[in-house]
């Protein structure tokens, strides 16, 4: 019968073990409760201000459960599982669910808010100064966290406070020789650099008046004007400039009779439109298969190249007759220790046709990154150079776990070194490293930096500037969704779902084959 070490230990050892365990538990409990309380205090005010009562109730319920769990001595396993579960939901489950739900919307530039916000943006954005309308000297200030205007009428020197609710007189303000307000009671006047940093907020702020609205014209001047476009709730449309734009709830736009829409819209659910666009739009679907094929080739070549080179180096240094292994390991780990983004930029310059180091060493003038074939070869070689030290490290660790008796027994049975490696060492390595190889494939399938920092997806053909010879799906998606047309988060999320499905299917098949392999060598 096995004897518990704590029972066999002297009394003072058991007492010290009990004290250390109790101290560690108390410290961890205090840390978890402190983090939970800090998150609660930080999140409650903005949730209350925005009226997010469901999120506030969920936060309160989770905080109550955590407090109850860590203030009692029961449920010890749950005390260790709950933090991990919370972080899993926050950093894994929630981003995936949010991405999938976003894929069914038109969320993006021009569709970030609701319909009311869109109407406000359309009306305030169409404000034009009418002839003879008032002009003011503008100062920008903060009333608490709210941005406000301090307006000085040059003719009467009267100071007014401008807010989204309207215009009101302001007393006690100190006006400088330039006509701008220098100080005002209860307000914090922003200096020029501070106001410039909040330029978008200043431009968006509109102060309603009886004759129209007051808007900023730069950082020192404000003018009163009228909106050229006005929303009419009776017809659910926008009128102005001799035209009418009717609300299209399915697309989140105001559209006129000619099919033209206003730039500002609102966020709506569009169903499968984003997915259908990927499959039916000839500009996108025409290149999708080619980009996918190169993407698979790039990921496979990177993983196989890194694994082969890393394993070869690890086997060489694992040989019992090898000397100076510590020095070689330090040298070989350098590419992995250096910042990847910096090394990618260095390699990009090394491939330069005119002054790159590679052409200078070869005495050639090869346009490495200007031709599709050489550019693809170049990015694969760079990725292998950056990734093989990782495979070298994990293969070295796996080789340490393989008993030398197995290879010695194979050699006694007459197997050549190559046959012993192929029949004994390699299968055991693959059993241990296949999950890492699958994760490396998933990483390289979405390796945005390797392409963006070396070729930026190029070279680009003259007839198709949207897709380049080295574009992966992730870089192609980024250019389509965040190019000159503005950010289209819903469309980008839809393509991300496609990429996730492709990687998930390949990974599932690979893991299934891995389990069969483990059963053979178990």
From TrEMBL:
Pfam families, per database record: BPD_transp_1 (PF00528), TM_PBP2_N (PF16296)
Compartment(s) where it occurs, according to its Swiss-Prot or TrEMBL record: Cell membrane
TM ranges: 24-44, 50-71, 80-98, 292-315, 327-347, 377-403, 424-443, 489-511
ABC transmembrane type-1 domain sequence ranges: 292-510
PROSITE patterns: ABC_TM1
Record InterPro entries: MalF_N, MetI-like, MetI-like_sf, TM_PBP2_N
UniProt keyword Isomerase present: no
Keywords attached to this entry: Cell membrane, Membrane, Sugar transport, Transmembrane, Transmembrane helix, Transport
Record membrane topology: Multi-pass membrane protein
Family classification: Belongs to the binding-protein-dependent transport system permease family. MalFG subfamily.
Stated role: Part of the ABC transporter complex MalEFGK involved in maltose/maltodextrin import. Probably responsible for the translocation of the substrate across the membrane.
Xref: PANTHER family: MALTOSE/MALTODEXTRIN TRANSPORT SYSTEM PERMEASE PROTEIN MALF, MALTOSE_MALTODEXTRIN TRANSPORT SYSTEM PERMEASE PROTEIN MALF
Name assigned to this protein: Maltose/maltodextrin transport system permease protein
């Amino acid at each position: 019968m096995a004897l518990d070490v704590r029972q066999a230990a002297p009394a003072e050892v058991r007492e010290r073990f009990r004290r250390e365990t109790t101290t560690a538990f108390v410290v961890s409990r205090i840390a978890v409760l402190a983090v939970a309380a800090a998150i609660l205090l930080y999140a409650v005010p903005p949730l209350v201000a925005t009226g997010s009562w469901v999120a506030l109730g969920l936060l309160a319920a989770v905080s109550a459960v955590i407090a109850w769990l860590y203030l009692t001595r029961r449920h010890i396993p749950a005390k260790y599982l709950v933090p991990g579960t919370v972080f899993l939901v926050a950093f894994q489950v929630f981003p995936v669910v949010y991405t999938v739900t976003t894929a069914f919307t038109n969320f993006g530039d021009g569709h970030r808010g609701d319909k009311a916000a869109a109407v406000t943006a359309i009306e305030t954005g169409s404000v034009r100064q009418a002839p003879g309308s008032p002009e003011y000297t503008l100062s920008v200030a903060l009333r608490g966290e709210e941005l406000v205007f301090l307006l000085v009428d040059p003719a009467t020197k009267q100071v007014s406070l401008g807010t989204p609710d309207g215009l009101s007189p302001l007393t006690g303000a100190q006006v400088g020789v330039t006509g701008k307000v220098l100080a005002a009671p209860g307000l914090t006047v922003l200096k020029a650099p501070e106001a410039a940093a909040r330029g978008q907020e200043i431009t968006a702020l509109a102060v309603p008046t009886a004759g129209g609205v007051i808007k900023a014209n730069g950082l020192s001047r404000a003018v009163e004007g009228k909106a050229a476009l006005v929303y009419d709730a009776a017809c659910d449309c926008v009128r102005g400039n001799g035209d009418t734009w009717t609300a299209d709830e399915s697309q989140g736009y105001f559209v006129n009779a000619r099919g033209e829409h206003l730039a500002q819209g609102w966020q709506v659910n569009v169903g499968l439109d984003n997915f259908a666009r990927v499959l039916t739009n000839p500009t996108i679907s025409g290149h999708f298969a080619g980009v996918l094929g190169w993407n698979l080739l790039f990921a496979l070549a990177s993983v196989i190249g890194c694994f082969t080179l890393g394993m070869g180096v690890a086997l060489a240094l694992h040989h019992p007759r090898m000397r100076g292994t510590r020095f070689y390991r330090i040298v070989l780990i350098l590419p992995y220790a250096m910042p990847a983004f910096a090394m990618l930029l260095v390699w990009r310059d090394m491939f330069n046709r005119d002054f790159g180091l590679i052409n200078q060493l070869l005495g050639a003038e090869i346009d490495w990154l200007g031709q599709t074939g050489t550019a693809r070869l170049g990015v694969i070689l760079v990725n292998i150079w950056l990734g093989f030290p990782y495979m070298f490290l994990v293969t070295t660790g796996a080789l340490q776990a393989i008993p030398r008796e197995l290879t010695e027994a194979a050699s006694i049975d007459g197997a050549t070194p190559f046959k012993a490696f192929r029949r004994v060492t390699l299968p055991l390595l693959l059993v241990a490293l296949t999950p890492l190889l699958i994760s490396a494939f998933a990483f390289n399938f979405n390796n945005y930096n390797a392409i963006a920092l070396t070729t930026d997806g190029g070279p680009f053909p003259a007839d198709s500037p949207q897709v380049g010879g080295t574009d992966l799906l992730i870089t192609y998606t980024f250019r389509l969704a965040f190019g000159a047309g503005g950010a289209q988060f819903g469309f980008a999320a839809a393509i991300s779902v496609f990429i996730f499905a492709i990687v998930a299917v390949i990974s599932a098949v690979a893991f299934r084959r891995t389990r069969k392999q483990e059963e053979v060598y178990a």
